[in-house]
Amino acid sequence: MFETFLAIVRRDLILAMRRRSDMLTILFFFVIVVSLFPLGIGPEMNTLRLIAPGVVWVAALLASMLALERLFAIDYADGALEQMLLAPQPLSLLVLGKVAAHWLVTGLPLVLMAPVLGIQYDLSLDGLRVLVITLLLGTPALSLIGAIGAALTLGLRGGGVLVSLLVLPLTIPVLIFGAGAVEATISGLGGEGHMSMLAAILVLSLFFAPLAAAAALRVSVE
Amino acid sequence: MLEVVDLECVRGDRKLFTQLSFSLSGGELLYLYGQNGSGKTTLMRAICGLLQPTEGEIRWEGESIRELSDEYTREVVYIGHKNGIKDDLTALENLRILSTLDGVHMSEDQAWDALDRIGLRGFEDLPTQVLSQGQKRRVALARLLAHQAKFWILDEPFTALDKAAVSLLQQVIRDHLDSGGMVMLTTHQEVKLTEGQVKQLQLGGGGQADV
After folding, report:
1. Quick check: is B208 in a domain?
2. Could you tell me which residues come within 8 angstroms of residue A35 by beta carbon, excluding any fewer than 6 positions away?
């Protein structure tokens, strides 16, 4: 069973490596959105420090929405999804494999890039550290929650916009606690509480999102 | 043994077939025919469990496939209109991943061997996007060579295949039937099917079905 999970992860990683442009588009989107704010607002350090957590988090949220549309769409088009549905393994496990690969390709690069971008906003070392930790906890949750939306809108026209409309409201808690942790750290209050909430959201979505996405896929493919 | 009891499927607002009943046991082939849009693919998708029929029941060894789920899907291999292969992967990678999904461990040697038998010698290491339609079909069909599933559901398996591949596939199907397997297929081509246990099912004509 675990072998199948690994096979799916490996397959999707190979596919992503052979089609690197998809991955880079998302990363560049994130970098550019975050970099536009200092240019638009001006080099007022206090303001930038104030908006940094929110801007980085909203940009990460939008970047992960951008990637969602393709999560199942290609598998649906070439018939690989049908075969996954018919595999004698729990579909939710295969979905988890796909989401894991998806996060490694689209989420992890954002996490790694975030500290570099944070410097533009004059974030303190503590702030940067917490920003990375919250993104590390939050972006997998975004991918997991997004997978439900991607599965529900599979095969629909204008699915990309619909995914965002469906998923963005669900991701509000992740945004609040993610950005909140960084803000609390900067202002000296300590972000541990926020981070625990974020971890709780991740654990919950790790358990429930694959089940929900699998059920949605069965309906969509029918 | 597969039993279909009083099956009814609706696509959109159209009733494709109703009160459809038949059974299929080991060593038998079911040849499904009918015009375009008569519900052949729908019936196949319902039988392999991708689609929930409006009414009726599908039983495998006496139990409903809804309740069996994994035990049933392990016994079934479905090859539909879409090949289910990835354009960016090589034929070898595609075959091995599909087999892993089927729950069959295929070593690299076995995969080379299967691709060789299906007539893809020299193309094993190429991304499938450079292969022709027929060659892609062959990659998908190579799964059958290594698969231990008892029940094959093949939707238009002969499409895009050349003469040699068609006769090879016929031979593979014949071997499978001889070893007690079951096959359900559709085709619009004039392909001589195996002698012996062949059942025919015609769909179309206002929801009528003749066995």
Report:
1. no
2. A117, A120
Instruction: Extract the tokens encoding A177.
Output: 């606690």
Q: Is A21 on the interface with B (CB under 8 A)?
A: no
- Residue B190 has φ and ψ, to the nearest 5°, of -80, 90
* Chain A residues in contact with B87 (beta carbon < 8 A): 78
Q: Nearest by CB to B48, from A86, A88, A90: name it.
A: A86
Cβ separation A84–B101 shorter than 8 A: yes
Tokens 């291999």, located at residue: B77
Are residues A209 and A149 in contact, defined by beta-carbon separation less than 8 angstroms?
Answer: no
**For chain A, what's the residue count?**
222
Per-residue pLDDT of chain A (222 residues; tens, 9 = 90+): 788 899 899 999 999 998 888 889 999 999 999 999 888 888 888 888 888 999 999 999 999 888 888 889 888 988 889 888 888 888 999 999 999 999 999 999 999 999 999 888 888 888 899 999 999 999 999 999 999 999 999 888 777 788 888 899 999 999 999 999 988 988 888 888 999 999 999 999 999 999 999 999 998 888
State whether A7 and B100 contact (CB < 8 Å): yes
Domain that includes residue B174, residue range: 2-202
Is the complex ipTM more than 0.90?
no
CA A122/CA A52 separation, integer angstroms: 9
At B33, which CATH number?
A: 3.40.50.300
Instruction: Return phi, psi of residue B132, to 5°.
Output: -80, 170
Helix (H) or strand (E) holding A79: none
Name the residue ranges covered by the structural domains of chain A. 2-221
pTM (2 d.p.)? 0.89
Q: Is B112 within the bounds of a domain? A: yes
> Is residue B168 a part of any domain in this protein?
yes
Closest chain A C-alpha to B39 CA, distance in angstroms: 14
Any domain includes B117: yes
Task: State the total domains in chain B.
Answer: 1
Helix boundaries (H) for chain A: 2-18, 20-41, 45-68, 70-78, 80-85, 91-102, 108-120, 125-152, 159-170, 172-186, 192-221
Angle between helices A159-170 and A172-186 (to 10 degrees): 50
